[in-house]
Amino acid sequence: YLTVSIEPLPPVVVGDAVTLKCNFKTDGKMREIVWYRVTDGGTIKQKIFTFDAMFSTNFSQMENYRKREDLVYQSTVRLPEVRISDNGPYECHVGIYDRATREKVVLASGNVFLNVMAPPTSISVLAADTPAPFSRYQAQNFTLVCVVSGGKPAPLVYFKRDGEPIEATPLPEPPAGASSWAPRNLLHRDLDDTKLPKSLAADGELGMGNPFPTADPPRGLAAERDSVTESIPETVVSREFPRWVHMAEPIYYFRHTHAPVSDGTVEARATLTWTLNPQIDNEALFSCEVKHPALSMPMQSEVTLVAPKGPKITMTPTRARVGDTVRILVQGFQNEVFPEPLFTWTRVGSRLLDGSAEHDGKELVLERVPAELNGSMYRCTAQNPLGSTDTHTRLIVFENPNIPRGPEDSNGSLPGHRGFRFVLALTLTVILELT
C-alpha cells in the first residue's frame, strides 16, 4: 500500500522560511520522491526536487532559484526565503516498486497551497482634480485619494479626521456627475452683495425666491478685477473666505477599489468625498490608515488641508534693464499648502506683455521688457479649494546703456537732456516706492 499526505500551510510573509513536508506510508520499496510546482491553473508542472532511491541521490531542478531549497528529510523540502512568485500549489509525488514486477512503479501524490503575503510598500494621500480654483460663491466637492501599493492580498483602507475614524457612506460605483450624488449641506448662504459679479446683482436680491446661479464666476475672482478703476498698493496681500456657511455636519462618501499588478501584488485606492467647508476644513488633519495581515501595526499617511498664505515672490534679474528677460516666480508660502495651489498672473490696469489677460503657472516670464513697463504692477492669485490669496509686485525697468539711441528725440532735444529726464523720473519713482 502507499498513502501520501501533505501538512497544510498557514499564510507566510515574503522573506520567511517555509518547509514543505510530504508524509507517506508504504510497505513497498521506495523508487523516488518528486516535488512539483503547479502553474497556469494546473496545466504546467515544474519539477523542483527529485529524490532517486535507486542511486540514493537527490538533486534540484530549480537552477533559476540558485538551489534555494535544502533537503531536510527525504520527504521534506525547505525554501529559505519565499517570494511572491512562489505563491501557488505544490505537489509531492511518491513512487514505489510494484511487488509483482520491479519494472512497474506505483505512484501516489498529495498537494498543498502556499499562500505568500506581502505587506504594502508605499502609501500616499493625494487630492483629486488639483490644482483647482477656489469659489466663495458656490459649494465645492472635494476628494481625497489614498493609494496603497505593493500589498498582497488587498489591504483594508480607512480614513480618519483629526485622529477620529470617519463614518462614511459606501459608494460602490464612481459618480456619473458631481451634481447627481453630491451632498447638499447648504442650508444657508451668507452672501456679500458687494462681492457679487454685476450680472448676479442685477438679477435681484438672492434668497428671495430667485435660484442661486450654478455657473462659477470667471476664474481668479474676476469680480474684483476692474482693470480700469482699481488702484492697489504694492503691500497688499489679501485672503478670500467663503460667503456661505454649513449648518450641518458634512456627509462623507467612501469608495474602495483594487487592481492586480503584474508582480502579483495589488494596488488599492480609497476615495473620500464630501462638500468642502473651508471655514471648518481649513487646517483639518486627514489620515489614511491601512491594516494588512502582513503588518504588525497599521501603516498611515496624513495630510493637513491648508489654504495658501503669504506667497514668496522673487524677480530676476533684481535690477531689470530695457531689453532684459524678467522672470517672476512664486518660490513658496509662509505655510505648508495642501492641496496644490493654482497660480494666476495678471497685470493691474492692463494686459500682459504678450497681450493675454492672464497667465497660469508658478512663473511669469516677460521677454525683452520695454521701458513702457516701468512701474507696472503684477498680481499673483494663489488659490486652492480652501482659500485664495493675492500678492503684488512692481516692475522697475532701468535704462540700458547698451541699446543705442538716435541723436535727437521727437521734440528735438539732445540725448543728454533726454537721459537726464529719464534718470530723474526713475529716481523719483524709486524714492516714492521706498517711502
From TrEMBL:
Location, primary (coarse class): membrane
Membrane topology reported for the UniProt record: Lipid-anchor; GPI-anchor
Residue span of region Disordered: 202-221
Keyword Lipid metabolism: no
One Pfam family from the record: V-set
GO CC annotation: adherens junction; postsynaptic membrane; side of membrane
UniProt-listed InterPro entries: Ig-like_dom, Ig-like_dom_sf, Ig-like_fold, Ig_sub, Ig_V-set, Nectin/Nectin-like
SUPFAM superfamilies to which the protein is assigned, alphabetical: Immunoglobulin
Coiled-coil segments: none
Compartments reported by the entry: Postsynaptic cell membrane
Keywords assigned: Cell membrane, Disulfide bond, Glycoprotein, GPI-anchor, Immunoglobulin domain, Lipoprotein, Membrane, Postsynaptic cell membrane, Repeat, Signal, Synapse
Keyword NAD carried by entry: no
All residue ranges annotated as the Ig-like domain in the record: 15-108, 311-396
Entry's Gene Ontology BP terms: heterophilic cell-cell adhesion via plasma membrane cell adhesion molecules; homophilic cell adhesion via plasma membrane adhesion molecules
Role: Involved in synaptic inhibition in the brain. Selectively regulates inhibitory presynaptic differentiation through interacting with presynaptic NRXN2.
Assembly, per entry: Interacts (Ig-like 1 domain) with NRXN2 (via Laminin G-like 1 domain) in a trans-interaction manner.
Listed name of the protein: Immunoglobulin superfamily member 21
UniProt organism field: Hippolais icterina (icterine warbler)
